[in-house]
Amino acid sequence: MTAAPLLDVRNLKKSYSIGRSGLFSKRSLKVLHDVSFSVAPGEVLGLVGESGSGKSTIGRAILRLIESQSDVMRFDGQDLNSISPVRMRSLRKQMQIIFQDPYASLDPRKTIRAVLSEALDAHGLHKGAARVPRLIELVTLVGLDPSFLDRRPHEFSGGQRQRIGIARALAVEPSFIVCDEAVSALDVSIQAQVLNLLADLRAKTGVSLMFISHDLSVVRYISDRVMVLYLGRVMEVGPADQVHFSPKHPYTAALVSAEPSLHRENRRIRLTGEIPSPLVLPSGCIFRSRCPYAQPACAETVPPLQTVGDQHQSACLRTDIL
Amino acid sequence: MLAFISRRMAAAVAMLLVIGTIIFSLLIIVPGDPAELLLSTGGGSASAEAIANLRVNMGLDKPVLTQYVTFLYNTARLDFGTSIVDNGSISSVIALRLPRTLEIIIAGTIFALLLAIPAGTAAGLRAGGKFDIAASAINALLTSIPGFVLGTLFIFFFAQVLGWLPAGGYVAFAANPMQHLQMLVLPALTVGLHLATIVFRMTRASVLEMRGHDWVRTAVAKGLRRKRVVRRHILYNALGPIITVVGLQLGILLGSTVLVEFIYNWPGLSGLLVSAVEQRDYPTVRAVILTVAAIFIGINLVIDILSSLLDPRIRLQ
Amino acid sequence: MMSVRNFPKRMILPSLFLAALIIIPFAAPLITADDPVKIAVRYRLAAPDLEHWLGRDEFGRDRLARVLYGGQVSLTVAFVATTIACIIGTLFGLVGAYFRGPSEFVTSRLSDIVLCFPPILLALLVVTLFGPGSVTLVAVLSVLYFPTFARITFSEALRVTSLDFVEASRALGTPSYRIVLGTVLPNIAGPLSVQYSLTAAAAITIESGLSFLGLGVVPPAPSWGQMIRGARQFMNQDPLGIMIPCAALVLTIYAINFFCDRLRDTLDPKGTSGSSMDEVSKPKSRANAPTIKDPDVVAVINNLRLETAHFGTPAVIEDVSLTLRANQCTALVGESGSGKSLSSLALMGLLPGAIRQVGGTLQLRRKSDEVVDLGFLDARRLEDIRGNDIAMIFQEPMTSLNPIHKISDQMIEAITAHRPMSKSDARAHAIALLKRVGMNDAERRIDSYPDQMSGGMRQRVMIGMALSCEPRLLIADEPTTALDVTIQAEIIELLQTLRQDQGNGLSLLFISHNLGVVADIADRVAVMYSGLIVEEGPAAQILRDPHHPYTRALIESMPSSHEELNSARGDRLPAISGTPPLPSARPSGCTFRDRCPIALPACAHIRPALYPSADGERAVRCLRAPEAPAGVMNHQTEAA
């Protein structure tokens, strides 16, 4: 990579303590195991995985909305692990989030004006006379009518609410936005509109995105690079088209083959068994219990991410099969 | 399951300990000398000798820690000490009167459940229908009548105007079973109606909620008979929330029994309590309240276990 | 949320009622000049007259004055105590919920302890120590009730804090105190105000109860409880004496409760307008549709029209006709609100109470070859058909099974509902079914509870249960939407195999918004838009060569249709603008014309029919489709 990364994360870990098995020992549930990645300025990194893969946890951990541990977490040259709460608050101006559920992500009691003003107030932006023009600029940017400003969320459709959520994230002119399943709750025809909007904004403002979704095609279309997660571990990461069309990890291959498509003849790779409980993970390769290519060796070591192509890495011992 | 029960029992014992401690410390944190305070009825202060006697009697002259340990030890043995009014054993008075109070509560609870669960179910299944509107209106009115007002009105109508039932009093069951039951009717009805309003409301809400769940639609889609859908997939699921609320409301029920017993001259715990409060007989008041709190905790323990039997998710968590 | 302008109508009456009952006691000096404590033994128990409207009590005191001034005392004690409890409790709860940690522990444990004391007993305990009086009462009641407020605030705040919009505020960098006061507090104000009213009512009850026992407000100060206590002895001679304070007390509590109920309904409208579960929608008139002749056809929906129960509302389903054949999978495709799920629920007789069938027929050929119209059957016969001739699986496997019954019990009851079978035979049959839907170790797992299974497994159970009586028609309403993509593929594959295995030629009605899934499983496709079928025909033809612009737009909008596009290279998806119209705001003419890239002026005037193709295989509801008859545009434009 040529440019210094905007976001650099090394060995991100997250676990929850759950109940007690004995009287004193607390069990812990590990949802992220040493996840490392970086995002370049202006880049879109896609995160793909099924439920339990930890993809949403990563987004929230970076924004420090939940506690997590990591060896390195640097954003725009600043160390997020040692940052003071006051500095963190002002840093939030640069990193924003768009949520999945357009109904839960807006306060039903606040007008759109209040929602967007909260964002500006938090960082003392566009005060006084500059406020109204900025609000109008924001709603226009996401393709809404300025007359909507004094309405409340219940007057809008899901797609419109999602645009408002995007406007809120853009209000502070961030350089990085986490899109957590941002189009998953939308109907297909609306989803395409919002995807185009995100693509336009990215072209216009040069913002970096972390695009989290379970839908491979959506992620492939919107992302530069894609990272595939399974049970909190990175299985494969690489350029979007490469990961999608010539996956190097059996799990990615299975995901792509399972995805229903109008145009491709499906030769589905069958996985065996069910997704294991995060409490009793298989030894070695976490995917081996469902992998059609698993060998005894897969139970021995956790496969490291190995370079398999230009910017393309895969965590699989069996480099011989795909 | 066993682990679940023992965990709950440990929690109940811990709760009793905390409550005992709070009741004990209330006497300590009262400003001034508790013995003097307790004897100062209506402005006139008691003789120095009487105060000193009481101090020795209640063990107030000993260090606080000793008092506390003695109190816990005696309470655990169900020995509540003696009354400061007549020096009688409090434990034996409670043993005599407690069953009478429980009788009213049990009779009232049975009445409430028999009335309110079917009515609440019917109202919930046809929410917005004629029966629901009528029953909910009656319920709203009944909810607004405090127990002692309801009792007073009952005496006025059923005893004085109509003369159907005795206005109050108590006869031991062994002495005259018929009369005993006649005297039980009004107190039990008064306590029960109040509980019934709460159970009705909860049953209706719970049935209404369960009715909307996807599994009810599945049950209907399976072609089950309506009765079975209501019984197995609505009411059975609603039962857990209902008994939990009943358990919590029993505290209020136990409280309203105090007034109801007073009105009907029913010689249960409340007569003892009210006169003890009037005479500032703190050891007796303390003992009655501890007993009631213990009953309340005991009932809720049973209800916890019952609801875990009803809902596997509580057991499995 | 509630500005003066849009004060909810349902709140006007209870608010006025409550305000009146609170204001009147405090207006006592304006109403009567009498002194509530002035004794005139000469006039004891005097009947009402012009000067003393409510007569005099057992000490000859004016009863009107006593009721009014007594109300002042009761209301003051109750509301002061409730307000103190509310403020302290809310603070505790907010701190506990937002900052968690030890304050959380204190908040939840404290209320557990206080809940163990029946309120009136705790009040008695304190009265023993401090003696009776209003100040003692206020103090006791505040201590008694603040943990309840803390608990409610805590749990509500916890719920609100986990919502996305609070997380959004945190992500924006809004300071904590502003989030708590500006976002969390307004969103929990509803439940808190309900609790406030409840507590005020309970406080009045306790105050009057204690005064009734002579342990509350100290005489001669008037209070309702004391008035009842005093009048009790003279109940016989003077019923009015007991009725007046009782009425005042009950009315006040009722006013508060009434206000509280309405408030709750206004804040949380769900459940109040609950439609009855027994409401059965019946068509208004019986259409004379021919009965099914073709033995291959399992069910026919003909010109189905559904409306909401409110008078004069537009149809949610305008016109749906569909023929479902044996050994065939028909997919019903559309976006949310298109009416696809309602159409299938109509077939099951499971329409929500608020929706009525006002036209059309729903014919079904039963396993016995009897043809019935599902819209005209009574509840009992529908029960015989559901699960037996038609079965259904739903979108949410996590909630579709009853969490408190074992899988075995739920399957067995589905079997024995339609087949005379012993419980053990039914159990064996259920195990066989589970094996058929691909569950390993079925003998053991049949005795687990739904919560012990993954979503995919539960959906397998649902499918096994649906097939338990070998229905001829299986309706699958978005059966894979809630599942992960690898599990989705397995379930689709399972449905495919089962369809081939089922001996009597199962007809599958598959409802989905996902065209990719549909392409995998369907033989025929019907596309719905805004309550109408807009295109229908063989799946391969429609998906490869859609004739309706909406079908085309659906396919084109999917990123998976454009594997060559990538936003990084500046590509855009070919999206259509706008959103589907609400039933009340459908445009004239063609309902899609507002969003249609190829609409003509004529489309605003003509509501197109479903035009069949020459070979009769497919049909399209579009004036510009090749199937549209020549001249239809000119002809109808002139007519309009």
Q: Can you describe this structure?
A:
The complex is a heterotrimer of chains A (322), B (317) and C (640). Chain A is of the alpha/beta class and 322 residues long. Helices cover 28% and strands 23% of the residues of chain A. Chain A is globular, with a radius of gyration of 21 Å. Chain B has 317 residues and is an all-alpha fold. In chain B, 78% of the residues lie in helices and 0% in strands. Chain B is globular. By secondary structure, chain C is an alpha/beta fold. Chain C has an eight-stranded mixed β-sheet, sandwiched between helices. In chain C, strands 2-1-4-5 form a four-stranded antiparallel β-sheet, with helices on one face. In chain C, helix 3 runs antiparallel to helix 8. Chain C is elongated. The two termini of chain C are 46 Å apart.
Short synopsis of the structure:
The complex is a heterotrimer of chains A (322), B (317) and C (640). Chain A is of the alpha/beta class and 322 residues long.
Write the layout of secondary structure elements.
The complex is a heterotrimer of chains A (322), B (317) and C (640).
Chain A lengths: L6 E14 L5 E14 L4 E5 L6 H8 L9 E4 L2 E2 L5 H7 L3 E4 L13 H11 L8 H11 L16 H13 L5 E5 L7 H18 L2 E6 L2 H7 L2 E6 L2 E7 H6 L4 H9 L47 E4 L2 E3 L8
Parallel strand pairs in A: 3-8, 3-9, 6-7, 7-8
Antiparallel strand pairs in A: 1-2, 1-4, 4-5, 9-10, 10-12, 11-12
Chain B lengths: L1 H28 L4 H6 L8 H10 L6 H13 L13 H36 L4 H14 L3 H15 L15 H35 L2 H8 L4 H38 L5 H10 L3 H29 L1 H5 L1
Helix pairs in contact in B: 1-4, 1-12, 5-6, 5-8, 5-10, 6-8, 7-8, 7-10, 8-10, 9-10, 10-11, 10-12, 11-12
Chain C lengths: L11 H15 L1 H4 L31 H37 L2 H14 L3 H12 L3 H28 L2 H9 L3 H37 L11 H9 L6 H29 L29 E12 L6 E11 L3 E5 L6 H9 L6 E11 L5 E3 L5 H7 L4 E4 L3 H4 L6 H10 L6 H14 L5 H4 L9 H12 L6 E5 L7 H17 L5 E6 L2 H7 L2 E6 L2 E7 H6 L4 H9 L53 E2 L6 E2 L11 H8 L1
Parallel strand pairs in C: 3-8, 3-9, 6-7, 7-8
Antiparallel strand pairs in C: 1-2, 1-4, 4-5, 9-10, 10-12, 11-12
Helix pairs in contact in C: 1-3, 1-10, 3-4, 3-6, 3-8, 4-6, 5-6, 6-8, 8-9, 8-10, 9-10, 14-15, 14-17, 15-17, 17-18
